[in-house]
Request: fold
Amino acid sequence: MNFHQAPRAAETWQEHEAEQKRQAAAQRAAANRENATKSTGPRTPEGKAVSSKNRLAHGLCSSSLILHGETQADFDELRQQIHRTFAPVTPEETLLADQLVEATWRLNRARRVENQALNQINVGTGMNIMRFNGSTNVPPTETSLATGLAEESHQKNLACILRYVAANERTYRASLKSLQDAIKRRQPQVAVATPAVSEPAVEKPKVAAVGQTIYPEGDPITYPASPSSVPAYIDRC
Reply:
């Protein structure tokens, strides 16, 4: 028996398998090229108009944003409200409006998570207080939250949620400002006329006529220029 035949057979099989893979890859490439020649893209004006905006796609997929317990109808209603409010016209404005929809959707969810976390702390701590005191009186919300947040586990959980809320708030504010700036750039700048400011009239000082004196009040007082008659001096000595 020739012991060199077994390794040689294995090499021949590997070469044969590699060749089959190369042929399969070549066939797939040829099929893809043939299929590409059959697809000429949109032909109608409407299809071409939609296709021209493909490069502006922002990757917003509503289905990926909707979690269990959320509905597509609520998302669509939010989008209609924001588009109706800002009325985007250009492709850029439409893109930014959709980004604002996404940011608003995420922010609303983050606030619901915060509210739910506080409710869980409130209810759980309240039940513990009632069991500890042997009472059926539900403690005030402030007491339950203050007691619950004293626990380190609750503090870490709430701190993580608040960071989540803050991050979504920053994204929302940035999206809102970008959309407002884009709309402002599109709208024509209206020059605001500055009203002419008239200088106050300077009152000319009054000049006293002959026989008049001007007092600080400004009213002239007339006095006789010379005595009209002088009483005669009578020496009665």
